[in-house]
Amino acid sequence: MAEMLSVETNETKKGLGIHARRALAYIVLVIMSFLCLFWFYILFVNATRSKGELTQGFTLLPSTHLIQNWKGVMAGTLPVVRGMINSLVVATCSAVLCTYFSTMTAYAIHVYDFKLKKFMFTFILAIMT
């Protein structure tokens, strides 16, 4: 009888552990989803603000200039294409430099033997996630 009781207790503990882990996983997923979707909300809020409001600083509340800004984009009075080209140039340069330095780092870690080789590899993998 005592053995049966201990088996049930272990199964109960195991079940609670699974539920706790699942709850923790959902909490982490909700937080990560919020962090990802928050920037789309900020994008929308900034689309509703005028140039003057954009220079005043950060706010979470939308403004009333969405239709005016949309008309400006459609009429061609706002330099959207120039902004896209600037973003493309910056992103391309950033990607090329990042790839270059990452390749050099990977080569050095693979070829050379040094004291903190395993630590550096683990540290770089931790930073990437």
Topology:
Blueprint: H1 2-47, H2 51-56, H3 66-75, H4 80-111, H5 117-128
How would you describe this protein?
It is a single chain. The chain has two domains: 1-47; 79-129. It is an all-alpha fold and 129 residues long. The model has no long low-confidence stretch (mean pLDDT 88). The protein is built from five helices and no strands. It has helices at residues 2-47, 51-56, 66-75, 80-111, 117-128.
How many domains make up the 3D coordinates?
2
- The percent of residues in helical segments reads over 70%
N-to-C CA distance: 49 Å
Rounded average pLDDT: 88
Total number of beta strands: 0
Number of continuous helical runs: 5
Q: What is the helix/strand order? A: HHHHH
Q: What is Rg?
A: 26 Å
Principal-axis shape: flat
Strand content: under 5%
Low-confidence stretches: none
Q: What kind of sheet is the major sheet?
A: none
Summarize the structure.
With 129 residues, the protein is mainly alpha-helical.
Observed structural traits:
2 domains, transmembrane helix, membrane, mainly alpha, MetI-like_sf, 129 residues, transmembrane
